[in-house]
Structures are given as structure tokens and as C-alpha cells.
Amino acid sequence: MLRLRRPLFRVITLAVLLILGSCVANPDWRDVEDYWRYDDLYDFAYLVCMAETHRNEGRVPLANALDGEAWRFVERGDFPGRTYVRVLAASRSYAYRVPSGDSSVGCARWKRSQTLHHVIILSFY
Fold this sequence. Notes:
Blueprint: H1 2-25, H2 32-35, H3 39-56, H4 60-76, H5 81-95, H6 103-111, H7 114-122
Helix pairs in contact: 3-4, 3-5, 3-6
Protein name: Lipoprotein
């Protein structure tokens, strides 16, 4: 029984040393929040929300112009595609709850909301 424990102990010790060595060798680990510029995603969410509320109010040309501006964020952005898709879906669903005529205030509230922050953070995992 002692013979079985010794190789297991060596394997566990080796694994722990490898993990610690990789942590020490790569001290430049950064948090996801430090690596990505989130301002673009919040602006993208705001533009999508504004476009959808204007579309719901019947102002389609203005909504199409805002969609074009939002699309420019996607074209020049460095985020994964799934991040934009999740922010887009969440912003559109929120836009349906914004009262008519209150799009700028409602979408600004969405841009500052904790829910949008969670959507953005969780879209990376």
C-alpha cells in the first residue's frame, strides 16, 4: 500500500510545481476587465437600444442610421462575435420595455445598468 501512495504523491507534487512555475513564469496575467475596452460595448448597446426604440415608434430611417453607427463598432471592434450577439440581443429585448418618447433616458439607463455589465462579462465565458 505504501508503494501505491509514493507514485501518486510524486505526480501530485509535479503537478503543483508545474502550476506554480507557470504562474511565476507568466506574471503578466490580467483580468478580463483590464484587457478589453468596454466603452465600445456600452456605446454599442446604447446605439442598438436607441435604434430599436425608434423602430418601435415608427421612425425607421433614424433607426437604420443608428444601426449603421452600431455596425461600425462591430467592424472595428476587437471583441469576439458572440459578445456582440449577446449584447445585441439583450439591448433589443430591453428596448421593448422603454416607454415611447423616452428612448434617450431609457437607453442611457440601460447603458449604465448592472444587467448590461453582467451580460458583457458573462459573454466572455
